[in-house]
Amino acid sequence: MKDIEGKTFDVVIIGSGPAGLTAALYAARADLNPIVFEGPEPGGQLMQTTDVENYPGYPEGVMGPKMMEDFRKQAQRFGADCRYGYVTNIEFESRPYKLEVDEEVPIFAKTIIISTGASAKWLNLPSEQRLRGKGVSACATCDGAFFRHQHVVVAGGGDTAMEEATFLTKFASKVSVIHRRDELRASKAMQKRAFENEKIEFLWDSELVEVLGDQVVEGVKVKNNKSGEVITLDDVTGVFVAIGHKPNTDLFKGVLTMDDVGYIKTKGQSTETDLPGIFASGDAMDPVYRQAVTAAGTGCRAALDAERFLAENLDEEAIAQAHWK
Asked: At 296, phi and psi to the nearest 5?
């Protein structure tokens, strides 16, 4: 990192999932020489995914890590500097913005593209973590089609869980919703859809305590919180954890406007945030779709917004002396 210490970059991209690497590709092709800090999870959530079948351009499907490798190579081909590093602090009071990388290397940015993504919330079971990507998933839209005519379970009781369960009935023969309370937290409309779906059954006052299997999911153990009884569902082949996502935006709390969960709010249809020259893309600002293709689209938009911003602020002294809007 010493080779970049004290340097000023036109575009600094924080995060290296589909949004960050698409932003890098567009910025690099515009000769903006972007630098990408890949953060603690290089490649983002897709690095935990096996087959990706719903991204355009891969008619036979592609492994998540391979797809992100392709994204990175394409951005690097045009000059993007992708490197492992973690932005640990940003001084927002003046421009160009001063960033600290890995708690020790200072650099400066005329524009910043936030692509830090979001992380699925997990149950933190050892067996769950061991079988992630091997039958355990946090995305029904991504992985549901792999479970045609099979019995799957969904852990959760909110809108996300009901959306996942309802979606999974398109493929699965049976969907068992495991919820720790005796009533759902989901909206009435979502509850109605789920209750009316004959493929969905509910295990109330229960929690998933173990995922069975060595290489793939081969069943689950479920505990009833009232009786203490533990039952085994030995025909389950898929587990979908649907207890929400947490956007990785702590670095920007108190500075950028966010919703109650922590997703960054942007202006209109742009990727602009509250501060000039700072743009947000991908799952850090999208609480609704959370798909690789939609994240890539916002990465494209962020790079175009950054390019336009730089073109409109060519006076370096004006950039350095600019005040918050």
From this structure: -60, -40
